[in-house]
Amino acid sequence: MRSILRAGTVISFDPARGSGVIAPCGGEEHVTFHGQAVRFVDFVRQGQLVIYAIERADAAVRAVEVRPA
Question: Does residue 18 have a pLDDT over 70?
Answer without folding.
Answer: yes
